[in-house]
Amino acid sequence: MEFSAKQIATFIQGEIVGDENATVHTFAKIEEGIPGAISFLSNPKYIPYLYETQSSIVLVNKDFTPEQEVKATMIKVDNAYESLAKLLNLYEQSKPKRTGIDPRAYVAETAKIGKDVYIAPFAYVGDHAEVGDNTVIHPHATIGSGAKVGNDCIIYANATIYHDCRVGNRCILHAGCVIGADGFGFAPTPEGYEKIPQIGITLLEDNVEIGANTCVDRATMGATIVHSGVKLDNLVQVAHNDEIGSHTVMAAQVGIAGSTKVGEWCMFGGQVGIAGHIHIGNKVNLGAQSGVPSSIKEGSVLIGTPPMEVKPYFKSQSVFRKLPDIYFELNALRKELDELKKQLNK
User: Which of the following is catalytic: 240, 247, 277, 279?
Assistant: First the structure.
């Protein structure tokens, strides 16, 4: 399927600089552009590639002014990256979609399956489970008994939704993720650790995306809640009875201990660790590998363990690298001071 620069500009409300009849049929990174491809430029580091790319069309920000000739047709938009996302979504929606239940899948007789659902071979849908309209369930995915999955969801291979858990509309669960496994609850006894039954559920609201091999544990009682628009990367751990606010995003290997509340629109870098039973305010940004032992107020931008503001953190890190030299200098000064004291005391 081909689209012209004029059609694309109309769809994303852009301004054409070049040939409005230039056509594309695929996407490519600007540094790997080929004829018939559309690329984008949003990071200034990639500006040199604009003058060399073979792509037929390139999306650029409106405030960008080229310093030399650009062979490709440019479409100027408010935000090139966001416009690319719109085009990629349009491209995905134009793909033909499969429907129906493969005879090699298992769907319990008591399960409720919506319209235009596709259930792939070897997928499992348990007793009294519900699957909404237009949802796609890939091979070896498991929908436990009593679980509910909304409309327009994608459940990828080997993803597991445990019994009675809830998944909203337009959610994406990537391969190997687990929704509703038992929370880590054990009571120490003289004989060992006695398991505390986890009788709650996990609830994902609408437009949530869960990365590959990420786990969101069920609550001891009540619900572990992931609110609408949350995006979790691969290998993230959300423990029992946590609550993650709307539109919060977390990079890979973030771990959140139990009964912690995270606000809306937060951003956590990779390997951030958060203690249990604390509260993280709205719009908190945490740099990679931050360790959070206590609550954080709204709007904080922090990094480190314990977290501190960004500028003082990097200043302290520059000092930290010099600590061995400072240590030796301090010892030398102590020796000199001791010698001076001895001479003064004579």
Answer: 240
CB 184 within 8 A of CB 239: yes
Q: Alpha helices of 55-121 — where are they, by DSSP H? A: 80-94
What type of residue is 150?
G
Query: 206 in helix, strand or coil?
Result: coil
Which among 81, 89, 85 is positioned nearest to 44, based on CA atoms? 81
Regarding whether 111 and 88 lie in a shared domain, the answer is: no
Q: In the chain, how many H helices and how many E strands?
A: 5, 40
Cα Rg of the chain (Å, integer): 27
State the CATH number of the domain containing residue 162: 2.160.10.10
Nearest 5°: CA angle at 67, between 71 and 20? Answer: 35
Domain end among 52, 72, 94: 94
Q: In what order do the strands lie in the sheet with 136-137?
A: 100-101, 118-119, 136-137, 154-155, 172-173, 209-210, 231-232, 249-250, 267-268, 285-286, 301-303, 308-309
Cβ neighbour number for residue 219 with a 10 Å cutoff: 24
Residue at which a domain ends, from 47, 71, 94: 94
The C-alpha torsion from 163 through 168 and 169 to 173, rounded to 10°, is -60
pLDDT, position 154: 97
pLDDT tens digits, 116-172: 999 999 999 999 999 999 999 999 999 999 999 999 999 999 999 999 999 999 999
Mind listing the pLDDT tens digit for each residue in 228-264? 999 999 999 999 999 999 999 999 999 999 999 999 9
pLDDT digits (tens, 9 = 90+) for 3-33: 999 999 999 999 999 999 999 999 999 999 9
To the query of whether residue 240 is one of the catalytic residues in this protein, the response is yes
Domain with 336, as residue range(s), is 318-345
| First-to-last C-alpha distance (Å) of the chain | 96
